[in-house]
Structures are given as structure tokens and as C-alpha cells.
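Long-time lurker. I teach an intro course on protein structure, and each term I like to show students one example going from raw sequence to a predicted 3D structure in C-alpha cell notation. This year I'd like something fresh instead of my usual example. Would anyone be willing to generate the C-alpha cells for the chain below so I can use it in lecture? Attribution to the forum is fine with me.
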Amino acid sequence: MGRIKNYRFELEMKVRDYECDIQGVVNNAVYQNYLEHTRHEFIKEAGLDFAKLHKEGIDPVVYRIEIDYKFPLISGDEFICKLNFEREGNLKLIFFQDIYRKRDSKLMIKAKVIVVVLKNGRPSSPDLFVDALF
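-- Reply from a regular --
Happy to contribute to a lecture. Here you go:
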């Protein structure tokens, strides 16, 4: 995964004690929560409502996630989750997400999240999202 040069969205967060494992670092699975929360806030800011879309039978779902863990976050760390995205083909949205520790701008993780949109349970064009997000 290459470095992202221009981000479309950034969200600041802080590590909570209960997100850390016995080693004192953020559990690997928690990073997916950070990434998802950032995507949801980005989409919400673009004017899309997940609950309303779901009632209409439209659901963006994660198809695949690749995460490169560079360095661990620890309790109390403030961090910034940044993202950019692109459309791939007729059915996929690719979100490129990086997490940086706020105090020193150190890259902590890089992720590539592939999302497909389902309409009434069937793969559908992501045009609704592309139009809102671009």
C-alpha cells in the first residue's frame, strides 16, 4: 500500500483503557472500529444517513480489509485517522486509511478497505456514494 498524499477526511480520537490488551497496546481488532467510525463520519458528513439507506435496502458492506500494523497505540494516545477513497470498477469503493499518532505524527497503521454496496442483498452500483462523496 503506497503513501496517501491527499486526504479527503480526518477524524481525531483518543485510545481508551479498555481498548488495550494485556500487553498494554491497542488490540489489533480495535483498529477496525477506528477505521469504520472514520468512514461512517465521513459518509455522514457527506449527507448520507445509514439508517435511512438501510430502510431503503441499501447497505455498504466491507468486502476485504488489509491492515499494515506499523507501531502500536497505547492508552491515552490521541490519534488522527485520515482517509481517501476511489472507485474501482462498477461495484467497489476502495478506502485508503492511515492512522497517525497526534503528538509526533508517526504513522501507526495503513489500511485498504474494500467496500461493496448491496441493494436488497444484491451487489449494486456505488453511484449514490460516489456522487455524494466526490
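Some talking points for your students: The mean pLDDT is 93. Strands lie at 9-14, 58-69, 78-88, 92-101, 107-119, 122-124.
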